[in-house]
Amino acid sequence: GSIRETTRLLNEAGYRTKKYHSRRGLSQGGRRFDKSGVHRLLTDHVYVGKQQHNGQWLAAQHQPLIDEALFRDVQALLARNHVVRPGRRRTTKHVFLLEGILQCKCGASMTPTWSRGRHGGEYRYYDCRRKRDDGTCNAPRVRADDIENIITQRLIRLSEDPALLAHVLEQANQGNEDQRETLRDKTNALLAKYTSTNTQIASLVDFLATGSTSTSVKERLTELEGQKAELQQALDNAREELRELKDRTANIDKTKEGLAQFANAFAQASMEQRKQLFQLLVDHAVLGDDKVTLAVFEIDLNEKPPALEGARGCPNWWTGRDSNP
User: Fold this and answer.
1) What whole-number distance in Å separates Cα of residue 194 and Cα of residue 198?
2) For the chain, how many helices (H) and strands (E)?
3) Which of 58, 163, 299, 306 can pair with 258 through a Cys bridge, CB separation 3.0 to 4.6 Å?
4) Between residues 299 and 258, which one has the greater pLDDT?
5) Closest Cα partner for 4 from 85, 81, 113, 72?
6) CB neighbours (10 Å) of residue 120?
7) How far apart are CA 42 and CA 38, in angstroms?
8) What is the pTM of this model?
9) Of the candidates 232, 257, 321, the residue with the CA atom closest to the CA atom of residue 284
10) Has residue 91 got a pLDDT over 90?
11) How far apart are CA 263 and CA 153, in angstroms?
């Protein structure tokens, strides 16, 4: 009943994480499960029909996938299996500012790792997960200090160069408008299909109301009801994407203010606090052969305490391209 054993059984059975494409078109997922991922699945209240709001898990509109009693049993089992071993030697805790943020040019995540040098020194790196998993990527690992410093300096540079920031935001807003136009076309096409399907359903219902017991008509009605549900879900998703895009229009003054506060806060923060700052500000960073591409959240650090306790990412973001020196 351990996380380790559950992870091993999932991987041996051929199960893999969900495949999807990010907003930037990068391929994600489809990998072997790890212990942390399995733990997140087993402890996620979303699967019992809840969603988080203001730090509390509340009933959501979606249907639960598992029974809440079973979920409670799993949490109890996890708690019983969590054993703290007194006297166990503690290793140095390495903080990686870009953990979960940095991506390889191949689309895979860059995972944190570290090694100990010949004279006892410890060195932090980011390495392509795909290269480590199956060797299909040849990207070299990068020193964590180097790439973290490059991205930090890029953010500071943006805050100090209004012309560059304005240019980047203009490009981002144009990209968002192009995406909105595509989504509008997609939404209109889905709505037309939904209306047509609904009309066909109404006609079949009227036909059955006359007393017909045709099996083929009933089967067709069931098929159309399924199509209607799928179209409704697709419509909801497209409309939600449109709402998100509407909120992504970047404001140069607000973004510049957030970046300026980032520079001041970063200089005084501990490594853990710096990691929280990166999580607040940077959506993702893609490491290419000769440049780093950033997608950055629009934030207002005036609303966050210096320690950033309980801080959450904001929904607005814009993308900036900046080449390494």
Assistant:
1) 6
2) 9, 11
3) 299
4) 258
5) 81
6) 6
7) 6
8) 0.45
9) 321
10) no
11) 9
